[in-house]
Amino acid sequence: xxxxxxxxxxxxxxxxxxxxxxxxxxxxxxxxxxxxxxxxxxxxxxxxxxxxxxxxxxxxxxxxxxxxxxxxxxxxxxxxxxxxxxxxxxxxxxxxxxxxxxxxx
Length: 105
Description:
Layout: H1 14-17, H2 20-30, E1 36-39, H3 44-56, E2 59-68, E3 71-80, H4 93-101
Antiparallel strand pairs: 1-3, 2-3
């Protein structure tokens, strides 16, 4: 039986009001194998960024379309990989990308 830890973030305010990286880092640090993070992001570009960040943190992310009262919405479910690392990387994503850009990684 899975335990579900759910966090819902409104799409338009997601990057402005919430530290996405801190949210994912907290999820990686403080949850068990069966826990799930649910994020509602409607913008396709932001969902693409979300999937990329999940890959960096060795997480599985799947976006599904849900219909409620005739309106379609996107929901991304994020879980830890069964064989993945339970630790947060020592390097931040922004520093990793900077090193990639400079050819140091």
